[in-house]
Amino acid sequence: MSTPLNLLVFAGSTRGKSFNRQLATAAAAHAGRAGARVTHLELADFDLPLYNADLEARGTPAAAIRLKELFHAHPAWLIASPEYNGSYTGLLKNTIDWVSSPVKGDPLWSSGTKPFAGKVVGLMSASPGAMGGLRSLSHLTPLLLNLKCWVAPEQFALSRAGEAFDPDGQLSSEAARKGLHSVVDQVLWAGQRLLP
Ligand SMILES: Cc1cc2nc3c(=O)[nH]c(=O)nc-3n(C[C@H](O)[C@H](O)[C@H](O)COP(=O)(O)O)c2cc1C
User: Fold this and answer.
1) pTM exceeds 0.85, yes or no
2) d(CA 36, CA 44)
3) 99 with 119: CB under 8 angstroms?
4) Which of 76, 85, 114, 158 could form a disulfide with 120 if both were Cys (CB 3.0 to 4.6 A apart)?
């Protein structure tokens, strides 16, 4: 990789032993080996209330501004999305809602799409179920497109996630590693071509 790509990696779960965090970590390790400059974002570190426009009218929370800055600063992202009831998590939606909401009176953040527009985004999911959380990605994709992200066509859903990782956090199966790497590699490839 000529110029290292700044890559933001995060999971849509705050669970201690989150499979999606494990998957995000494996993806980040592969991206790092390929030359990307990786930032791990842990959503549990951000004290973000449930989105409420009346609350927002009293001032956008500092955590939302910090997330806007982080999202904006990284031209490419990898998101590992759990599946709840056939869709992505409320945590992920709440985060995206805050980050996409314009900040009144702040010209820096007057555009809601600013932190999202033009980002190259790779999507993956992990679930104990047979479909690997794939349906969460089919909902997350149009949401991100609506916010003007470039969503990578390669996506990866890890099924039977409880048995998929070895004690070192590596994916045990070659097929799973290949699936994960195909998303990461495509994001790095597109990132190099689409970004200034
Ligand atoms: C409210 C709720 C709904 C769920 N719905 C689904 C589902 O539709 N499909 C699925 O594969 N797993 C579903 N699960 C199981 C999650 O995939 C599982 O809890 C997974 O470990 C969450 O991801 P994480 O390990 O990254 O936290 C659901 C879990 C919860 C709590």
Assistant:
1) yes
2) 24
3) no
4) 76
Which residue type occupies 117? A
Give CA–CA dist 152/179, Å, rounded. 13
Residue 132 alpha carbon to ligand 1 centre in Å? 10
Pick the CATH number of 6-194 from 3.60.15.10, 3.40.50.360, 3.40.50.1220, 3.90.1200.10: 3.40.50.360
- 126-158 pLDDT tens trace: 999 999 999 999 999 999 999 999 999 999 999
Do 123 and 151 contact (CB within 8 A), yes or no? yes
The distance from CA 72 to its chain's CA centroid, rounded to whole angstroms, is 13
Q: Whose CA is nearest to atom 5 of ligand 1?
A: 84
CA nearest ligand 1 atom 29, residue: 84
Neighbours of 30 (CB within 10 A): 20
pLDDT band at 3 (very low <50, low <70, confident <90, very high): confident
Mutate to test the pocket of ligand 1, among 81, 85, 92, 139 (most ligand atoms within 8 A of CB): 85
List the chain domain ranges: 6-194
Predicted pLDDT at 195: 77
- Residue 128 CA, closest ligand 1 atom number: 17
